[in-house]
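Work Package 4 report. The design task specified in the project plan requires that, given a folded chain encoded as structure tokens, an amino acid be chosen for each position. We show below one input record used in the internal validation round.
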């Protein structure tokens, strides 16, 4: 894995940050994409670089096709290729489904799902045999989570797109997969009312007895990026301590 060029979208904090650090431990070169919070991104880049690897921050709003093109031009200009795309960035609106406006829908679909298509197209143009595209999904893609309709639908699109991309890119030796994570207590939860109560309920209902950590998720992403995972193609790997097993 040493010297592989890795882009983590939304890599400035939360799960994305843990993913960047995991790849850095193996000597990968890291691009950390962010949208608005430059300070967190620069802090993460310093932490990643302290592992002795090259690391760069890349500002780009993934809702914008031109900004995505610019981001990949910068990667290409520096290293001429991308080996691993981790599509981790996401945004959302928490509302009852019937209260969603067209603007909410377009915002969330563009950030979470269309961006995978646009990033995958750019990535694939320089991705060698052995390349990897890995996305982050969640249980809301197939189950009804209150207020989560916009994000859930976008994650369902992302999972379906994962299968189509996998079939098209497999002949080139590139794998495309998604990881569906259970609840991870990242900053995003601070925006949810009663988040501590909800997280405690999830913890109690999880057969493995605890919530996931960002590092739990990063480990599985890293495995999917490794040569050992080359025959896992177009799958959604559930990592939730057994939460989704229960009726
Ligand atoms: N946390 C959970 O419980 C959980 C569970 C299952 C799945 N997931 C999935 O795991 C992934 C990471 O979750 P997280 O909780 O770590 O998220 P988070 O803490 O909210 O971080 C989101 C990241 O995405 C970036 N981002 C947001 N909108 C963007 C845009 N338009 N363009 C580029 N970057 C953008 C943010 O950048 P700025 O800070 O610069 O805006 C930030 O780096 C997401 O795909 C999420 O759906 C999370």
């Amino acid at each position: 894995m040493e010297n592989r060029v890795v882009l983590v979208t939304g890599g400035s904090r939360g799960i994305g940050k843990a993913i960047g650090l995991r790849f850095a431990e193996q000597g990968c070169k890291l691009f950390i994409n962010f949208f608005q919070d430059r300070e967190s991104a620069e802090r993460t880049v310093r932490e990643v670089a302290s592992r002795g690897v090259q690391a760069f921050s890349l500002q780009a709003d993934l809702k914008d096709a031109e900004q995505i093109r610019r981001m990949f031009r910068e990667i290409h200009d520096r290293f001429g290729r991308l080996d691993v795309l981790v599509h981790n960035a996401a945004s959302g609106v928490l509302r009852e489904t019937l209260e969603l406006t067209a603007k909410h829908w377009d915002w969330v679909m563009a950030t979470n799902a269309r961006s995978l298509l646009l990033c995958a197209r750019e990535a694939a143009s320089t991705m060698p045999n052995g390349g990897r595209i890995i996305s982050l999904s969640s249980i809301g893609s197939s189950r009804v989570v209150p207020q989560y309709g916009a994000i859930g639908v976008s994650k369902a699109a992302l999972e379906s797109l994962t299968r189509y991309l996998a079939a098209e890119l497999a002949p080139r030796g590139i794998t495309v997969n998604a990881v569906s994570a259970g609840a991870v207590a990242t900053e995003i939860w601070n925006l949810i009312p009663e988040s501590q109560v909800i997280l405690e309920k999830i913890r109690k209902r999880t057969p493995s007895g605890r919530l996931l950590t960002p590092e739990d998720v990063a480990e599985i992403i890293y495995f999917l990026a490794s040569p050992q995972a080359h025959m896992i193609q177009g799958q959604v790997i559930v990592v939730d301590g057994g939460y989704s097993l229960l009726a």
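The chain has a mean pLDDT of 97. Validation will be extended to a larger panel in the next phase.
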